[in-house]
Design goal:
Layout: H1 3-9, H2 23-33, E1 45-50, H3 53-69, H4 81-85, E2 97-104, H5 112-127, E3 130-135, H6 139-142, H7 145-150, E4 157-167
Antiparallel strand pairs: 1-2, 2-4, 3-4
Helix pairs in contact: 1-5, 2-5
């Protein structure tokens, strides 16, 4: 699969086979991720990788409860209120691997560079038959000092986003539909 094929084929995957990614595979994906561009070559990314299903489920419940309690502070997440309140909702969709991405705020590019690294990971993962999905609704809890302390994330690192991953139960059946790119000048 070439890069263009990967970009066109990549979809958010929320159904995973019950097969765990090996530690070697995750390390290789992180290595490929960190080949992403980095502003001022600061490489401000840092990651927490969780592969224990019970730990992922517990973190998901904590994230839902925290978000529900603090929903007024996160207007962009209010659309998830019913999901947060539903005890059966699994915000990480039973994924066998969860990556929490953080950025070193000493870099102006602390949020951009980890995002670029994660996109590299999603494209490389697709080549390996691994599905992925960005999960932003875990943001409130994953940004807390409590969670950062739990996983030894240094204080100057801020939460960027979560990425769930696993072998796809089935490949995406249809291409993504997107709006045409907005071009603001008349040059093209």
């Amino acid at each position: 699969m070439n890069v263009i094929e990967a970009i066109e084929a990549r979809r958010s995957c929320r159904t995973f086979a019950e097969k765990q990614l090996s530690k070697e595979t995750v390390k290789e994906l992180l290595r490929l991720g960190t080949l992403a561009p980095s502003g001022s070559h600061m490489e401000p990314w840092g990651f927490v990788v969780i592969q224990d299903p019970e730990e992922i489920e517990k973190l998901g419940q904590e994230a839902k409860n925290y978000a529900l309690y603090h929903l007024a502070e996160y207007p962009h997440l209010q659309q998830y209120e019913k999901s947060y309140a539903n005890p059966k909702t699994d915000i990480f969709f039973g994924a066998p691997t969860l990556i929490l991405a953080y950025g070193d705020t000493n870099s102006h590019f602390w949020a951009i560079d980890p995002s670029l690294a994660l996109e590299n990971i999603t494209l490389a993962a697709l080549e390996m038959g691994i599905g992925s999905c960005f999960v932003s609704n875990s943001e409130p809890f994953c940004a807390t000092r409590e969670l950062k302390d739990r996983y030894h994330v240094p204080g100057e690192y801020a939460f960027v986003t979560s990425l769930i991953m696993g072998y796809m139960e089935r490949p995406a059946a249809h291409p993504a539909k997107r709006k045409e790119a907005k071009i603001f000048n008349e040059g093209i």
